[in-house]
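Review form for a predicted model. The reviewer records the input and the model, then writes brief findings.
Reviewer: anonymous (R2)
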Amino acid sequence: MRILPLTYYFPTIKGLFNNLIRQKSVYPFYASFKLTTRCHFGCRFCNVKKDPVKDLSTEEIKEILKNLSRSSILMTSFEGGEPLLRQDIAELLYFARSCKFYLLFTTSAKNILSYPIKEYARYIDFLHVSIDEGHDNMEMFDILPSLASLPCQLSVQTVVTRDTIDALDKKVQICYQKGANIVVIPATHMDNAEDCFPDLEVLERKLLYLRKRYPNTIHTPQGYFKAFRNHKCSSGSVIIAADGHLYYPCHILGRKGPDLRNTDLMSWLASSEAEEGRQLMKTCQRNCGWYQYYSIDSYTSVSSVVDALLPVIVKKKRPC
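Model under review:
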């Protein structure tokens, strides 16, 4: 795992300290950036393609990345849609490498090896390959050894529906054997998409069992399930729409805040409008279970951080 210059961590530490003092997540440290709504797939549990927007230009994306680089954000995730469909993705990856955050890159492209992924991986800290029945790309498990050899941390990201919990055993076993980690994400019900949300009690028991059988492989924090039971999502992470606007307090509610091409994120988060959004999240009764909003506070707990990040930190020989 790459160590950033010490000064890069200061805004995040300051933000976390302010959050602690205020007892609320005013300043986030994780940002999911939807670079495009275009995608190879049409997963039944996803609504991204049902609300298509024109891609931002290369320079507009860079302006948003500069904005994030000035903020408390410590990790930015390039997502979509499918970010590999952008013709300028190499330039964006190169630019993001100069920013003051870690870069996570999520792709579900079946033909990932036909891209210059070895070159791209030089600018990626964490590569998440989304593999599951919904994406109809289960054959990508076969190329994990090739992806595991890239100069970045590899994880499989698998979305679990109520019908696919039992398939987790085999997925985790393959990741354990082939040198990849895995993050398990429940298929949250989104508007204009099919409700495939799994039974979380069953899923929690399954993950506890699989953690013991395949140690240092799963990095879904157990704190996610506690947060769901307590109806406690968090604004400690944010999602940026493909049009450059910040979803706030969350994209499940579909409420958008400022255009981050021309509005400073940190200044806006201190505004009364942002506080209103946080209050809306606090009083929301939907309890959607969206992984990002329910797991993020686990990363401010020392025990949960160790639990979730140990598979990333520990690199050991695994059976073939």
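Findings: The beta strands are 30-34, 75-79, 102-107, 126-130, 153-160, 181-186, 237-240, 245-247, 256-259.
Further findings: Confidence is low (pLDDT under 50) at residues 302-309, 316-320.
Recommendation: see findings above.
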